Amino acid sequence: MGTFELNKKNCLTKEDKSRIGGIDEKIKPLCDSINSLNDYFTTSSCSGRIVLRKDPETGKKNESEWIFVIHEKASLEEVKKSLTNLPKEDVWLVMEAPILHICCNTIEDAQKMLDIFKNEGFKRSGITGMKPKIMLEIIGTERLDCIIAKKGVKLIDNDYLKILIEEANSKLEKSWKKLEKIENKIKELKNKI
Fold it and tell me: Which of 85, 72, 81, 101 is nearest to 169 (CA)?
């Protein structure tokens, strides 16, 4: 077994240490399709999510906490319920785009996979590492960031919150449609091999 194959086996059998403890259901079929190809494997993934994020006064994002997170469309009631006891920190409503990290066997393999994603609108993607592994970082372009509370005071009314949630849901839906198209293209790629 070569180095790439061993790395793939080790990565795909290790314990998942993500915050949700597994692959979210919307991106699992795409990851399975990528992982079924000999020259690729995913190291991390997210299909996109809607988050209420509490930012510390230090401004350090790595110290932020989630008040609410969902890898599905959010409802106004769910979000409002999460905002009943506002923290003293700033609170942001964020829709995060899908993201994947894919290890590739060769630079040519990396370029093939990158072309598939870029052709479907994942323009903020590229090769992020060459040694010891060839890594792709795939990032969607859909995103929404809006501060909704400052120092425990809500800055927006429910009508505007509803609009923000509808927009976030719409962006998620658009991202998921792109992921489905890419999954189909990867299945086609597998059939050609």
Answer: 72
